[in-house]
Design brief:
This protein has about 280 residues and is mainly alpha-helical. Helix content is about 70%, strand content about 0%.
C-alpha cells in the first residue's frame, strides 16, 4: 500500500481526500465542543478564585458523550455519521425527530476533504504533504471556531506553532532560522498594531489569538511570506466586512473575527506564497 501511494500520485490524492472527509467529521465535533469545554474550564477557574461552586454538568470532552441530536437527544449511529453521504441519505434531517441538520456539517467535511486532496496533489507524497495537511486541518478548525465564538483556542494554535518549527528543522517549508524569525515577527507585528490602535482609539481592534495565529503561520512559512499573508487577509477581511455592512446591514460596531482571514491568507501563502513573492520581486527589478 505504501509503495502504491509513493508511486501513484492519483491514489495518494484520493487516499488523502477520503481521510480528509473523515477528519472533517471530527473537526465538526472540535468546532462545536472545544469552545464549550473552554467555557466550562473558565467557569471552574473563576469559581475557585471566588471560592464558590459551579453547578454540576455532564462531562464534555471531544470523545464523550457520543454525538446526538441537540433537539431530541437521538444518539447518532455510525451509519448516520458517514461524511456527506449520511447527510444526503437523511435529506438533511435527524433520523428520529426530523429536525433540520445544519448544512455546515457537510460543508466542513467537503472543504476538509477537498483541501486535503489538493494539498496531497500539490506537494506529492512525503513529509511536506503530510505536515501541510495537518496545517490545513488546524486552520479549518480555527476558522469556524472564530466565526462562531471569536475565540482562537491556545490548545490548537500553540501546538500548531511548535509543530511548524519542528517540521522546518528539515527545511520543509522554510529554513529553521527563517521560521523562528517568522514566529517572532508574526506575533510582534500584530501586537504592535493592536497597541497602536488601542492608544489612538482606546479600543481593542483584535484579540491576542490573532497574534498567536500569525506567529504560527510565520513558524510554518517563514518571515518573508508574512507581508503577503497580512495583505491577503486584510483585503479579504475588508471586502467581507463591506459586504456584511451593505447586504446584511451589519453595523460597524459589531466585531468581525480576523482569524478566518488570517487562515485564508495562510492557506494561499502555503500553496502559492513563494510564487506570489517571486512575481512581486520580479516586477521590481
Amino acid at each position: 500500500m505504501i509503495n502504491l501511494l509513493q508511486t501513484n500520485p492519483l491514489w495518494f490524492t484520493i487516499a488523502c481526500g477520503i481521510i480528509g472527509l473523515l477528519v472533517g467529521s471530527f473537526l465538526n465535533v472540535v468546532i462545536y465542543r472545544l469552545p464549550k469545554m473552554m467555557m466550562r474550564d473558565w467557569q471552574i477557574q473563576c469559581a475557585e478564585l471566588n471560592q464558590s461552586t459551579v453547578a454540576d454538568a455532564p462531562a464534555l470532552t471531544l470523545s464523550t458523550p457520543h454525538s446526538s441530536c441537540p433537539q431530541c437527544g437521538h444518539a447518532i449511529r455510525a451509519v448516520e455519521n458517514i461524511p456527506i453521504i449520511s447527510y444526503l441519505w437523511l435529506r438533511g434531517k435527524c433520523a428520529s425527530c426530523h429536525t433540520a441538520i445544519s448544512i455546515r456539517y457537510p460543508v466542513v467535511e467537503l472543504v476538509t476533504g477537498l483541501l486535503s486532496a489538493y494539498t496531497a496533489s500539490h506537494f506529492g507524497y512525503g513529509l511536506a504533504a503530510i505536515s501541510a495537511i495537518l496545517f490545513v486541518w488546524a486552520l479549518i478548525a480555527l476558522t469556524f471556531i472564530d466565526f462562531d465564538t471569536q475565540l482562537l483556542p491556545d490548545s490548537i494554535i500553540l501546538p500548531l506553532l511548535w509543530l511548524g518549527l519542528l517540521v522546518n528543522m528539515q527545511n520543509t517549508f522554510a529554513p529553521l532560522p527563517t521560521a523562528l524569525v517568522g514566529a517572532m515577527l508574526g506575533y510582534l507585528s500584530l501586537w504592535s498594531v493592536y497597541w497602536l490602535f488601542k492608544l489612538l482609539t482606546g479600543k481593542e481592534g483584535m484579540g491576542y489569538g490573532d497574534f498567536k495565529l500569525l506567529a504560527a503561520i510565520g513558524a510554518w512559512l517563514g518571515w518573508s511570506i508574512l507581508p503577503i499573508v497580512i495583505l491577503l487577509s486584510s483585503v479579504v477581511g475588508a471586502i467581507v466586512g463591506i459586504v456584511l455592512m451593505v447586504i446584511a446591514k451589519r453595523g460597524r460596531a459589531i466585531p468581525i473575527p480576523f482569524g478566518p482571514y488570517l487562515a485564508g491568507g495562510g492557506l494561499i501563502a502555503l500553496f502559492w506564497g513563494q510564487d506570489i513573492l517571486n512575481t512581486y520581486l520580479t516586477t521590481l527589478t
